Amino acid sequence: MALGVGYRRSQEWDVRPYDDLSNAFAFTARQPYVLILDKVSLYVLELVTRHPRPAATERFVVTVGVRLGAAEAERRFERVLGELSGAGLIELVEQQEAAR
User: Fold this and answer.
1) What is the pTM of this model?
2) How far apart are CA 82 and CA 88, in angstroms?
3) Mutual orientation of helices 70-87 and 39-50 as an angle, nearest 10°?
4) What residues does 91 pair with on adjacent strands?
5) Please, are residues 63 and 41 in contact by the beta-carbon 8 Å criterion?
6) Max alpha carbon distance in the chain (Å)?
7) φ and ψ at 91, to 5 degrees?
């Protein structure tokens, strides 16, 4: 029985953070194509692939909301999550599978 939904990194993309974690390269052989993820995008990617979505959202809002305010932080999280999904960097999966 599924516990809900979560995300995992797409196997089509190889994400390599810079040494200082300021940005990350994301490569795919599919087109071939390269993206540069900023630190907010990299943070959201890490959160949603390691935690259930509600917990990932909460962690982001607690961290980023200090500077932006909670409502703006949640909007930013949703926007970046949509961008990551739209680019194919993450895939929606059943929660028990996402936890692997």
Assistant:
1) 0.84
2) 10
3) 80
4) 8
5) no
6) 41
7) -125, 140
Neighbour-count burial of 11, counting CB atoms closer than 10 A to its CB (0-12 exposed, 13-18 middle, 19+ buried): exposed
**pLDDT tens across 84-95, in order?**
999 999 999 875
Name 75's Cβ contacts closer than 8 Å, sequence gap at least 6.
none
Spell out a b/e string for 50-80, using b for 16 or more CB atoms within 10 Å of the CB, else e. ebbbeebbbbbbeebbeeeeeeebbebbeeb
Q: What is the DSSP letter of 37?
A: E
Q: Is the C-alpha dihedral spanning 28, 30, 32, 33 positive or negative? A: negative
The span from the CA of 7 to the CA of 31, in Å, is 23
Give residue-wise pLDDT tens across range 45-58.
Answer: 999 999 999 999 99
CA distance 97 to 51: 12
**Residues 6+ away with beta carbon under 8 Å from 28:** 12, 13, 14, 34, 88
| Pair 36, 16: CB distance under 8 Å | no
